[in-house]
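Notes from the 1:1 (GR / supervisor)

We went over the backlog. Supervisor wanted to see one worked example end to end before approving the batch request, so GR pasted a single chain during the call. The sequence is below; no edits were made to it. Supervisor asked that the structure be written out right there so they could see what the output format looks like.
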Amino acid sequence: EEAGLGDEILFFSRSAFHCSPRYSTAFWTGDHLTSWRKEDGIKSVVVGLLSSGFCGMSLNHADIGGYTSTHVLPVAVPGITFTRSQELLMRWTELSAFTALFRTHEGIVPERNHQVTDHPDTLEHFARFARIYGVLADYRKRLCRDATMRGLP
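Structure output shown during the call:
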């Protein structure tokens, strides 16, 4: 408001309380592991998005592909080493096409994580779901308006 830009500004918050939707334009679920794990990977994103929606924080999303990698040793150690595979990135892309925001992140160790541009199949898959996200723009705007005006998840 102070800058006079009105609806042209978007910022998202990770920390919140029950009145936060009044003050933040969107939310993000935080720095997830680049993994399939239910504790803090893609599975936890589904739970976080549903839970936050039911709590009135409807405009929520996660970094496509996760953010936190733990590949610090010279060899991968199952259960300790987390890096983003092509398959994980592609599935996360599909999930994110149906959320409020469609946003990638290279992660904290980009060279150890599969990126959208690393393989033609990944890039084609990402482009397809970016188009799906785009096609749903009017629908998403209506849902966002309803969430803002009526507090619906």
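Supervisor's comment: The chain is about 35% helix and 5% strand.
Batch request approved.
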